[in-house]
Write a structure and sequence with these properties.
By secondary structure, this protein is of the alpha/beta class. It is 31% helix and 25% strand. Helix 8 links the parallel strand 12 and strand 13 (262-265).
Length: 331
Amino acid sequence: MRAVIVHEFGPVEDAAIGEFPTPKPGPHEILLETHATAANFVDLLVIGGQYQFQPELPFVPGKLPTGVVAEVGSAVKGLAPGDRVLAMAEVGGYGEFVAVAEAQCYRLPDSMSFVDAASMALVYDTAWFALRDRARYQAGDSVLVLGATGGVGHAAVQLAKAIGAKVIAGVSNWDKAEMASDAGADEVIDLSNPDLHETLREQVYQVTNNRGADIVLDPLGGDIFEAAIRAVAWRGRLVVIGFAAGRIPIVKANYLLVKNIEVSGLQISDYRKRMPGQMAVCFGELFALYGAGKIKPGPTTVLPITEFMTALTDIRDRRARGRIVLSQGKD
């Protein structure tokens, strides 16, 4: 099969399109004929050998592909050839076919295209677990989303608004403030202000009656995390999702004690492996909200799989605007 192949861990420029053996599904697996897979920053970490796990070389990168069931293993009961699914594959999505456990596949609604499903995958489920599980969202909570115009941030703004939160979007580029408002943010704050250590909290207090945010979702880290923890309300919850700003911050425990606040982390891959039932609940709600028109993918660029290098370097070098989905050209 045609696939993007990584022979050695390193920069994405070392990966290349080539021929790779078509996988054979085991008894509890399905063989997915891939139609669309999103390009994600995490793919760069996997390709570079910097992710939480390292696939056996050589391998095909690409998480959470969408497509059609081509073949099923002997013990598969709930899926059949021709079913349209989103697969929780950790690697393999940049190939024409990938073998995935039946328990890690979710049937797509008829109204959802492969491109929409691929665009929403990884970012909307991450946002869901951050809100529903780690932050334990309660009706009426105020939610501050940092990096609100990035993939996870945009999804979190939409999802938080859809479930009833007061949403405050933090943007580092004020030119993108309208994008956050269009996603449903009630308020937008500027993360590029001078003296962010003080101005972030001031901006949040201005729109929360000096209370602070009940929930803060942080995919950025660095100085922004250290400023945002000061804007958490009493008994509030801050969820660490990533470090896109480049620096891993240090938590000052006195903030946790004085305001009775919590800081927790979210590594979404663990949920796929350890709690597939909860993942099914997640996608059940996401698909229902999509069907009701309450959430939808952000701006998405579709490129052929042959342009994977362009997609990933644009993400790495921060040229990408919105999501990029790689298509196998089968639609």
